[in-house]
Each structure stands twice: as structure tokens, then as C-alpha cells.
Amino acid sequence: MRVLISCCLLAASSALLAGCHEDETAQPAVIHTAQAQVVESRQLQVPVSLRSTGTIHARETAIVSAQVMGRIQQVLVREGDSVRAGQTLAVLDDAALLTTLAQAQAGLKAAQNGQAAAESDARLSASTLERYRQLEAQKSVSPQEMDEVSRRAEGAEARLDALRAQTDAARAQESGAHTMLGYTRLLAPFNGVVTARTADPGTLAAPGVSLLQIDQAGALQLDAAVDESSIGSVRKGMKVQVAIGGASSAEISGVVAQIVPAADPASHSFMVKIDLPSSARFHAGMYGVAEFANGMRQAIVVPHSAVILRGSLACAYVLDGHGIAQLRYLTLGATQDDLVEVLSGLSAGEKLVDTPADRDLAGKRIEARP
């Protein structure tokens, strides 16, 4: 009997404890409320751009080299010097060419003297022939004498023609010597800036070996490589946004000036030359990135102020159907003005907390501020 009573008491106690536990778990969890600005993700059309890297160059660049063999006597410029068209940049040793010129001048003088003597002889022969023709008309000379005078006149004219040809050849030789002597002075082909110097006095200059490089003064060009799969979207005259490394972050607007018609067989890319506006902010040799417009596409965007960073990860507080904030990680794309593209993690029309700052809002009900 005692055992039965004890069992009944134990069962009653267990039921009472179970009922107390059930009452405790049935109580709803407390959800805290916070006020915040709420924004909504939107689907917009955004421009598609083709990015290409390149290097800035002068529109014209000249490699200055010697046209004759000779030792360099003077180099009159250094890197960074501004030069004007026709300015002397370097001087070669001209002793041998001066000797050649003197010989050519002496040969020309001798040929001219010989031509002058031949011209005098030819005039005398022609005058004698004219007198004999008058005498022949009067039957005062024999036919044999007339033939001899005629042959002398013809011979004098032939010698004159030969000496005239010699004089022309001597004159051409002297002109060539003058030209070769002029090659000992290396001149600037246009107004520009010296960007490279590879020779010093005493160096032996040879034809075709670079001594100096001159970049033309004025506006510059960005030479950008565009892949063959994308070259169809680039056309001459289109405007291009350009960012120059080391220059101001402000956008630079360029214009496509030329598309080289042949692709590089190694990289399968085309060279696109982009005219840049005149500016003191960038120089030849700087790195640049060009963005070519390539149509429009649909994208989901949110205000940049709704995105927060957790280490290197981007995330945002997204509200569910009950207005409860949940921390969600996002993959971001390009930024345009105050909007940022969301590549993954959001759908269009979802609500987010704007400017959450450092507050922990995860699991809180958000009341939108007016």
C-alpha cells in the first residue's frame, strides 16, 4: 500500500514539473526594436564598359641617328630639354668630309676652267666657219678647206659638250660633299622634348644607331590594346573615359583617333590610339586605363551608404517580411555616383537599413524613420 502511494506521489510530482517546463517554453522571445532610415534595392539600366590598359605616348616621336659614320664631338642636349625644329642637337667630327668637299670644289673649278676654254674655242671655230661660208659663196675657198673648217667647228662643239658634262658631274660631286658635311650636324625634326639620350662625346656614331629620341610637343595619345573579341565595339571618333596613373582622379575624356588595322599575332589584340586633351598632369610613359562604352544592361543597385564592411567582406542589414534585420553578405560591382551595384546577395525591391554605422541590428525589428 505504501508503495502504491509513493508511486502516485512521484507521478504527480513529475506531471507538475512537466507542466511548469511547458509553461516556461511557451513564453515568446523578446524582440528589441530600433529606429533607422530604410532604403530599397532597385533594378536599373547601367552602362557596360570595356576596359583596356595602355601607355601614354607623344603623337609623333623621332629617333635621331647619324647618317654618316663619324665620332661624336658634341652632344648639346640632355633628357628633358625642350628643342625647336632645326636646332642642332649633336655634332660629328667633319675633318674627313671637309677634305672631300675641298677636293670636290677643286675638281669643279678645274672643270669650269676647261669648259670656259672649250666655249672660247667653240666660238672661234663657229666664227671661222661663218667666214668660210661667205667665202665659199664667192667661190674663194676650195671644198677641201671648207671641210676642214667644218670638222674643226664640229670637234670644238663636241669637246664643249663633253666638258659641260664633266662640269655638271663635278658640280653634283661638290653638292654631294656639301650634303654629307651637313649630316655631321644632327638637327631636331620638330618642336619637342628630348626623352632619351644614348650617346656621349667620343662615341663612334653609325648610320641607323639611335642617339637621341625627341617627342613632339603638344597633346599626347594613349595607346591601348583591345582584344580581338571586343574590337567591334570600338570605332574611330568615339569618346573614351581615361584614368591616368599618378594623375588627378578626375575623369579625362579622350577620342579614338586611330585603330591599327592589323592585330598583334602574339596577343591577338588591336592597338587603339586615343587623343588626350593637353594637360600638365600627365606625361609620356605614364600608365592609363581606357573605358569604352559598350551598351547597357540590367543591374541591382543600392545606396553606397547602406553597405558596411566586416573586415574585407561587404554586407548589409536586410529586412525580412516582418521587418526583422538580418546581416547578409554581398558581392559588389562598380560604383556610380552614390549607388553601388550588387552582383549577388540581393534581389530588386528588398529593404535595407541605411547608414547603420557601428550598431548591431541583427535580429532587431526596424522601425523606419519618417
Secondary structure elements and their pairing?
Blueprint: H1 2-25, E1 33-40, E2 42-58, E3 61-65, E4 70-75, E5 82-83, E6 88-92, H2 95-137, H3 143-182, E7 185-187, E8 192-197, E9 204-205, E10 210-216, E11 220-227, E12 239-244, E13 252-259, E14 269-275, E15 287-303, E16 308-310, E17 313-319, E18 325-336, E19 339-344, E20 351-354, E21 365-368
Parallel strand pairs: 1-21
Antiparallel strand pairs: 1-20, 2-11, 2-15, 3-10, 4-6, 4-9, 5-8, 6-7, 8-10, 11-14, 12-13, 12-15, 13-14, 15-19, 16-17, 17-18, 18-19
Helix pairs in contact: 2-3
Total of domains: 4
Over all CA atoms, what is the radius of gyration? 47 Å
Class computed from helices, strands and strand pairing: alpha+beta
* Chain-averaged pLDDT: 85
Largest sheet: 6 strands, antiparallel, barrel
User: How are the strands of the biggest sheet laid out side by side?
Assistant: 2-11-14-13-12-15
Q: How many strands in all?
A: 21
**Termini separation (Å)?**
73 Å
Order of helices and strands: HEEEEEEHHEEEEEEEEEEEEEEE
| Overall helicity | 25-40%
Write down the overall geometry.
rod-shaped
| Percent range for β-strand residues | 35-45%
Per DSSP, the total helix count is: 3
Uncertain segments are 1-26
